[in-house]
Amino acid sequence: MKITVGPIQFFWSAERFADFYAELAAEPCIDRVVLGELVCSKRLPFLHDAIATAVELLRGAGKEVVLTSPALVTLKRERAQLAGLASTWPQIEVNDLTMLAHLPAGTPFSVGPMVNIYSDGTLSWLAARGARRICLPPELPQEAVAHLCGVAAGLNVEIEQWAFGRLPLAISGRCYHARLHGRAKDNCQFVCGEDPDGLTVATVDGVGFLAMNGVQTVSDAYAMYAPRIAEFAGMGVGSLRLSPQTGDFVAVCRLFHACARGEMTADEVGREISALFPDRALLDRFTAAAEI
Amino acid sequence: MELVCPAGTPAALRAAVDAGAHSVYCGFANETNARNFPGLNFSVPELAAATDYAHARGAKVLVAINTFPRAGAEALWHKAVADAEACGADAVILADLGVMAHAARFHPNLRRHMSVQAGAANADVINFHAAQFGIARVVLPRVLSIPEIAAINRETTVETETFVFGGLCVMEEGRCSLSSYATGKSPNMNGVCSPASHVRYVEEEGMLVSRLGPYTIHRVGRSDPAPYPTLCKGCFSAGGKTGHVFEDPASLDAAELIPMLAKAGVSALKIEGRQRSRSYVAAVVRSFRAALEALEAGRPILTGTLDHVSEGGKATTGAYRKTWR
To answer: Is the Cβ pair B143, A139 closer than 8 Å?
Structure first.
């Protein structure tokens, strides 16, 4: 099973961003890296050069490098950005169907977890259009993942499964970080950058529930699906998606890699990851309801 | 502009038509539509009869088939499209790309609308769907401002429909799995959000607590009105502050913005609320039909007439006014 590192969902400084990808480039267990700004186009000017540098570095290290399209496209500059993406890099991950308007039919592409693929017809249509790799929506139940793996195998499409990191749950036109700080979105002063893993949203009883990340809402708990790797392999999942969080992320990649190769048990991996993130709740499936 | 009104039941459909709806939208009583609530929606014979009733009075019927098919069970969604056509529906409202492709191929003469659940928020993606699947109208997500809607209309020939009244999603529709995360049931897969089956009201230390799944959504004084625990309108804590972190419990009322929406090139105005009673539907439809007639006659539009039916008695103009920016 391949190890894919997904795009950083949060707003990291250019320096942190550059250091992170330099470490990934040096790590042999990582096969594929999807990067770029997924959540908010206002962050992009700060990261533009760092993305270009990281792409070259990762490519030089032999990684498969894929650029993500943004998840919500409304403004003119965002639409122009998509047209630019299509013309600058051969491998694109579509995270909003708008991107397809810029990719001629038959151009190979990947599909990210923000695109709604729930059933055969949609998967088949996208495969016919050029999809080669699909990271399924995290909310999909296990039986649906198993079914779609079967469909994908017949279409020569690789299925990727979310396996680590705060789960993407919603995207909005409104910025919750700006709202919390009493600011309008246009005057957000990039306050989401103060929370490089997102900001926990707890219930009034003090139970961690969600986390805000600018216009995005993610889970407070970290998905940690190492206990299900064998099950994923049995279904035909070809790749695990690990979503960046701060801390020793390269260690996370190594642990998942070792687990996928049978060199460590899921229990061992679980213990190590709990030690790396002692303050975080870890979930082994999408729905948190049963965990509390 | 066309007034598109909700009908959760045959009785509500008749009430909407009688109150002046140009169109009504409804769904089958199963997981193919995004208001899959107990006691709501239509059987195939009910839809056929309702369509006859509406057509006899000059109103159209739009059938919402706007959830995302369960893997391996698409036949149910395909049957819904075929049944809608057989019943004489004027259009189907679709969210899933695979269902759109199916409808375009096997039901080319059935008019296809793109549901708000498809999350089409710009002219490029709308035009793409029009080219691929012959989409005639798109229901726009509630994250857009009026200038953004006007910009879309300048760049597409696809008709646009916008919500003017009722429940308000603050997340982009069709791309929100908050309910799924908290309860295992989602709008995309099950046609429900913050479902009543997972709601509990309990009294704790003299306070009334409403929970969704395991999570507390509101905690109010025992004598205060307890709002329904819709997840994104809940009271939470973040960064040392406690409040409505995502959105206040208020519903959309864009009546005063109708002239601006008309100027922005919007073709149809939509009222949310298939889960509402027929008296509610009749009152809201009558009020908006009067507003449209006032607009045509050049008279001012009366606003605030529906405050008593808004969620928590509070109304907002949502993203339209651009205050979110």
So the answer is: no
